[in-house]
């Protein structure tokens, strides 16, 4: 989670390899690079096989086989209902994420730079970040009805805290050695912020945007399931109510697929553009 | 062992020969006294080393000279002018290199000039010169993570040379560089000192390194740090590097410093 | 921040926000936001009712069972993935997908598989919490220096002792971090699960109060929930700090 410790490697100890070991955990982006293709295919195939067998048994009357779900998915693609649903789901998601990104990154940077802003705002977002904001979603309906605005607000409520906190932590923890370097070459405060602090913080800020997007997906689906029967959430609820379980599963799988692919693409972009030092990691 | 602080061994220097004067510097970190009444002169065009046991505050003193750290009391003067912060006549080389991981070698070396607002073509041609000076020609478009520790510190050195400061402050520049590269680097540094005619202030905890590269060695005592002794190694610098490392004067000086520092080691 | 030379603790600014809440509530500008003071009064009355107590009990029950499952399964799977490459390759793609997937979409599926009741909520808590515990445990296990394991072997540690006395303890800082993040996610899971199931525990009360516009009780419920989530995460953080001292020197 923390910015790469590349720049402040150990000081007195023995010198280690130049390339820092690959970051902890497996990122989604690395999903497609660090493991041999074969392992991934086997892993996916095994899962689908187990699903298929469990569906054939069947373990529950409401558990379609993998192939049924796959055909349902194809049918929904062809009749266009998936596209209509995604249009309705992605629109508030994108608007909400863009608003959260602008507000959140700005607020995070201000908090990272100013002790006063940090004191006033940081605790609020620390609370909001670890608290179950989903509890407040039912409230939105009262004020903003069940339209686009309500869904957008649900996205912002869930996405904003993590974006703000990442931006704030990234700026606050900007490599002090680089800041000192900039000062030693008589960089102005403005140069320090634009040329050192923000570039140094940008990978973590971007990671915050990714986490915010993941939270936004949860928010928009939740809003659609709870308060506004539209989009993918409606597709899930509708097919469930008429016992079209294969279609219902297909809708659920599709939203997980879409969010996974979007997040993976973002992470690949992040590694390619923002972290030249990790490109070959 | 505790010689009077302000003493300068050898021939007294004329005022203009002193590049940096440190006057009664004291530094407290909250309750902890790091430096006590440090008085030192750094002669122009020489390489002076601050040497002392770990944690004795030699880096703090260097950062005070750089203007990165405020002294609790006392004053630093560079060319007679009091230091209030970092200035263009001083350049700093960092222990951890302080290279921007998102920038190429070229941009890192030219960074000091970029901050001054110099045009791109001009600063790049200056940077290119110093990149070749430190032996990194061909690596201009590489990123720091693609370089070894030794090469990274060469980038740090080139960046400091590029701003054409009179005084270069080097904070344990080789401590994160492996042994073989360090030796090569020390030899190259001596040639650069010869060629660039700048005033170098060098912090290290390696006795051999201090004796090998320095014109003068300032021994600092343990915290609270004071100037314990000033030594001018009598070594023939025109000899080959290998000859210097076997020179009797070199070996005697190393031994003398070790005898002086030994009782600080637990 | 310092004010007139005194250090003002950071969390003190929450009092400022409470004051803002009170003022907004008193002004009556938004009917959704009653004054904080009346929310607190309502909260004190609410916790004494049998309804709240049984709701809290049901919620806590699902949460504890779901979390216990998530911790046991998460640590076991994390250890296996950290030590055996085959297990790692088999599961890593799924763990990485589910750790950031919108699991709220899965709850309707759980509802038809496990019924509209407590089991669904328990499974939701489990699914929200388990993946991050797996990932952090795996990272912790992989960061155990091999010299420490070799040391254990040299001095004749049995495989059981090797794991019990060396590997798990060395990975403890990461495992605890995973559990803390898992708890935060688990709280979100229990709330989302109960909101969607809507007939048990806190979810039922949320549904009840928001439908009847009983904002004092709604916010009192929210404050108790937020406070519980914060306290839990603070408690784990405290334990984490206790083992943090050796995270740096392993």
What does this structure look like?
The complex is a heterotrimer of chains A (281), B (266) and C (250). Chain A is mainly α and 281 residues long. Helices cover 72% and strands 0% of the residues of chain A. Chain A has a single domain (78-278), classed as MetI-like (MetI-like fold, Orthogonal Bundle). Chain A contains 10 helices and no strands. Chain A is globular and about 70 Å long. In chain B, strand 4 and strand 5 (81-82) form a beta hairpin. In chain B, helix 4 packs across helix 5 and helix 7 packs across helix 9. The longest helix of chain C is centred in the N-terminal third of the chain and has 34 residues, at 50-83. Chain C has 250 residues and is an all-alpha fold. Chain C is globular. At the A-B interface, helix 7 and helix 8 of A face strand 6 and helix 3 of B.
User: What are the low-pLDDT stretches of chain C, counting only 5+ consecutive residues below 50?
Assistant: none
Largest interface, chains and sizes: A-C, 65 and 58 residues
The number of distinct β-strands of chain C equals 2
Largest sheet of chain A: none
Please identify which CATH superfamily of chain C we are dealing with: MetI-like
The total domain count of chain C is 1
Q: Termini of chain C, distance in Å?
A: 34 Å
Integer average pLDDT of chain C: 86
Determine and state the CATH class of chain A: Mainly Alpha
Distance between the termini of chain A: 16 Å
Sequence stretches where pLDDT stays below 50 over 5 or more residues of chain A = 1-27
The name of the CATH topology of chain A is: MetI-like fold
CATH topology of chain C: MetI-like fold
In DSSP terms (H or I, runs of 4 or more residues), the helix count of chain A works out at 10
Number of helices of chain C: 11
* Rounded Rg of chain C: 22 Å
Strand order of the largest sheet of chain C: 1-2
The class by helix and strand makeup of chain A works out as mainly alpha
């Amino acid at each position: 989670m923390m910015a790469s410790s590349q720049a402040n490697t150990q000081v007195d100890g023995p010198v280690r390899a130049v390339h820092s070991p690959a970051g902890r955990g497996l990122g989604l982006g690395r999903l497609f690079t660090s493991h041999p293709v074969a392992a991934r295919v086997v892993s996916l195939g095994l899962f689908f096989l187990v699903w298929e067998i469990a569906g054939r048994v069947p373990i529950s009357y409401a558990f379609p086989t993998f192939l049924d779900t796959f055909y349902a998915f194809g049918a929904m693609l062809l009749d266009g209902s998936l596209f209509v649903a995604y249009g309705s789901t992605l629109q508030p998601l994108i608007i909400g994420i863009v608003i959260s990104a602008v507000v959140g990154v700005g607020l995070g940077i201000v908090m990272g730079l100013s002790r006063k802003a940090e004191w006033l705002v940081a605790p609020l977002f620390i609370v909001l970040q670890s608290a179950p904001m989903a509890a407040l979603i039912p409230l939105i309906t009262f004020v903003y009805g069940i339209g686009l605005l309500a869904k957008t607000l649900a996205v912002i409520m869930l996405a904003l805290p993590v974006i703000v906190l990442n931006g704030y932590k990234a700026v606050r923890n900007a490599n002090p050695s680089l800041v000192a370097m900039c000062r030693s070459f008589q960089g102005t405060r403005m140069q320090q912020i634009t040329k050192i602090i923000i570039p140094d913080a940008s990978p973590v800020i971007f990671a915050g945007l990714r986490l915010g997007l993941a939270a936004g997906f949860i928010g928009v689906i939740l809003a659609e399931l709870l308060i506004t029967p539209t989009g993918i959430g409606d597709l899930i609820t509708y097919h469930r109510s008429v016992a079209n379980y294969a279609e219902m599963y297909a809708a659920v799988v599709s939203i997980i697929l879409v969010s996974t692919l979007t997040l993976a693409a973002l992470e690949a972009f992040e590694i390619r553009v923002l972290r030249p030092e990790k490109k070959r990691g | 062992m505790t010689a009077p602080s302000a003493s300068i061994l050898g021939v007294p220097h004329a005022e203009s020969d002193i590049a940096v004067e440190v006057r009664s510097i004291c530094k407290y970190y909250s309750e902890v006294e790091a430096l006590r009444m440090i008085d030192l002169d750094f002669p122009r065009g020489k390489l002076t080393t601050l040497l002392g046991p770990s944690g004795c505050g030699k880096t703090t003193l260097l950062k005070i000279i750089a203007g990165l750290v405020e002294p609790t009391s006392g004053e630093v003067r560079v060319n007679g002018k009091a230091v209030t912060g970092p200035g263009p006549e001083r350049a700093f080389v960092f222990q951890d290199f302080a290279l921007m991981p998102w920038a190429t070698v070229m941009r890192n070396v030219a960074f000091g000039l970029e901050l001054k607002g110099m045009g791109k073509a001009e600063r790049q041609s200056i940077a290119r010169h110093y990149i070749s000076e430190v032996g990194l020609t061909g690596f201009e478009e590489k990123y720091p993570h693609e370089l070894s520790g030794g090469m990274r510190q060469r980038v740090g050195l080139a960046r400091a040379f590029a701003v054409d400061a009179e005084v270069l402050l080097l904070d344990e520049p080789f401590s994160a560089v492996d042994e073989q590269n360090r030796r090569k680097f020390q030899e190259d540094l001596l040639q650069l000192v010869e060629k660039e005619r700048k005033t170098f202030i060098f912090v290290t905890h390696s006795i051999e390194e201090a004796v090998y590269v320095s014109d003068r060695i300032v021994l600092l005592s343990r915290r609270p740090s004071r100037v314990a002794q000033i030594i001018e190694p009598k070594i023939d610098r025109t000899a080959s590097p290998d000859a210097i490392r076997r020179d009797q004067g070199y070996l005697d000086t190393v031994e003398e410093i070790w005898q002086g520092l030994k009782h600080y080691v637990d | 921040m310092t004010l007139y030379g005194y250090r003002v603790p950071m969390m003190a600014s929450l009092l400022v926000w409470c004051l803002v809440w009170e003022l907004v509530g008193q002004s009556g500008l938004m009917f959704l936001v009653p004054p904080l003071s009346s929310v607190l009064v309502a909260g004190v009355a609410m916790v004494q009712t049998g309804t709240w107590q049984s709701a809290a009990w049901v919620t806590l029950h699902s949460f504890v069972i779901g979390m216990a499952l998530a911790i046991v399964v998460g640590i076991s799977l994390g250890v296996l993935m950290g030590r055996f490459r085959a297990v790692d390759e088999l599961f890593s793609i799924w763990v990485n997908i589910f750790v950031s997937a919108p699991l709220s979409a899965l709850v309707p599926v759980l509802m038809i598989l496990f019924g509209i009741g407590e089991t669904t909520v328990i499974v939701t808590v489990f699914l929200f919490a388990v993946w991050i515990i797996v990932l952090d445990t795996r990272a912790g296990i992989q960061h155990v220096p091999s010299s420490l394991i070799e040391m254990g072997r040299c001095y004749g540690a049995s495989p059981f002792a090797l794991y019990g006395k060396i590997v798990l303890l060395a990975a403890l800082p990461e495992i605890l971090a995973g559990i803390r993040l898992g708890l935060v996610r688990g709280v979100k899971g229990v709330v989302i699960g109960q909101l969607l199931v809507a007939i048990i525990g806190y979810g039922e009360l949320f549904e009840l109060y928001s439908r009847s516009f009983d904002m004092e009780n709604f916010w009192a419920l929210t404050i108790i929930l937020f406070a519980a989530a914060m306290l839990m995460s603070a408690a784990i953080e405290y334990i984490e700090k206790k083992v943090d001292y050796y995270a740096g020197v392993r």
